[in-house]
Amino acid sequence: MLQFSKYQGLGNDFLLLDGRDLAEPDQAFGLTPALVQRLCDRRFGVGGDGVILALPPREGGELRMRIFNADGSEPEMCGNGIRCLARFLADSDGDEPGRRWQIETLAGRIVPELQADGQIRVDMGTPFLQPEAVPTTLAVGPEGLPQGELEVGGQRLAVAAAGMGNPHVVIPVADVAAIDLATLGAALEVHPAFPARTNVHFVQVLSPTQLVMRVWERGAGPTLACGTGACATLVACHRLGLCEAAACLDLPGGPLWIHWDAASDHVFMTGPAEAVFDAVVAPSLLGDITDAPAEAPPEAGPGVSLEVKPEAAPNGAVDCAIDCAVACVNGCLRPEACASAEARARVAELLSGHSLDDLLAIATNSQDQRARARSDRDGDPAR
User: Fold this and answer.
1) Counting C-beta atoms within 10 Å of the first and last residue's C-beta, which end of the chain has fewer, N or C?
2) Which of 271, 305, 339 is the endpoint of a domain?
3) Catalytic residue at 248?
4) Which pTM value belongs to this model?
């Protein structure tokens, strides 16, 4: 049984899975890249831009967030995703405005806060403006951030880069609507100037406090919004002298308010996140997934390498430290010694020992609790 809740932030939608009480969180739900791809498929699965796990903390935070893109890869962070996670936690636990969460991510500790109007304000931390931290091969330019010209599809584009725990390239243009996003976004994502690939943002400046942007997300393609991308775009445009340190960024899914605070050097993002529905995945959707699980990510900060690296095995043979989120996307590389075999066996035992009605009853009880919490919140003007 796989119980989930679907949330969206400005049209960027995610499947939320609560694993905060799990004893073995990194084998949670038998999640694999292939399963993520199937769940996120908008025709044959549930549909979504990604899957988010709420897990026990490792480094003194309140909980830990893992997020998987629709292609099964694991990014460092997602601004819209963490707002959706905060809204999910508030709905699940009945939290009041003013509630803050200390959430561990691959991009470091991120702190969202529930606002009185229901929006989520997130302290996104300090932007990364050194090339090695983005990461990018672009050199630091006169405006104090990585800058340069890149040739893509026969065009030379003036670009700037910034990191928000994940990499972003920002391209100011005169008319954002005229950009061939599918061609340029796909090419820039994998450009050699970005060794960990990159998110791509074209931005048009309407005024010093209003920008319009279009998004191509690494591992997801064109999306309606990108929270970390909006933050990186504000930072880049401010350094380039194109906007103020606080501005409204209009994305296809709606507006985000971004403020780069000079005193703390932190970037703050404010925007909505809303519940869509709660549900249980039919066991038949999960039945023939056979690849390896999405293993725990390496303990590393921005720019972590995702490649498969050879290591010396105890017997002297060459072994591989496999990052299943990348290497096993097209199938398990070690079916004879799959690390998820035990977890998958437990899932099979659960499915074989309960009828579908039993599983639905278990899930419904939890979903009813969350629905009542949302109903109480929405029905009380003081909340």
Assistant:
1) C
2) 271
3) no
4) 0.74
Sign of CA dihedral 98, 103, 108, 112: negative
Domain housing 83 = 2-119+276-378
Q: What is the CATH number of the domain that holds 311?
A: 3.10.310.10
Residues 10 and 62 occupy one common structural domain: yes
Asked if residue 151 and residue 259 are part of one domain, the reply reads: yes
Element (H, E) at 383: none
* Same domain as 188, residue 251: yes
Phi first, then psi, for residue 221 (nearest 5°) are: 85, -155
281-301: b (≥16 Cβ within 10 Å) or e: bebebbeebebbbbbeeeeee
The two structure tokens encoding residue 227: 């929270």
78 is catalytic: yes
Residue 93 and residue 58 share a domain: yes
Which ranges of the chain have pLDDT less than 50?
Answer: 290, 295-330, 381-383
> Three-state SS across 18-68?
ECCCCCCHHHHHHCCHHHHHHHHCCCCCCCCCEEEEEECCCCCCCEEEEEE
Helices (H), 240-333: 283-286, 324-327
Catalytic residue among 40, 84, 226, 243: 226
Dmax (CA) for the chain in angstroms is 67
Could you report the per-residue pLDDT of 60-84, keeping only the tens digit for each? 999 999 999 999 999 999 999 999 9
Amino acid in the structure at residue 316: G
**What pairs with residue 5 in β-bridges?**
16, 278
Hey, CA dihedral for 295, 301, 306, 307, is it positive or negative? negative
Which DSSP letter does residue 313 get? Answer: -
Phi, psi of 305 (to 5 degrees): -75, 140
Residues 91 and 107 in one domain: yes
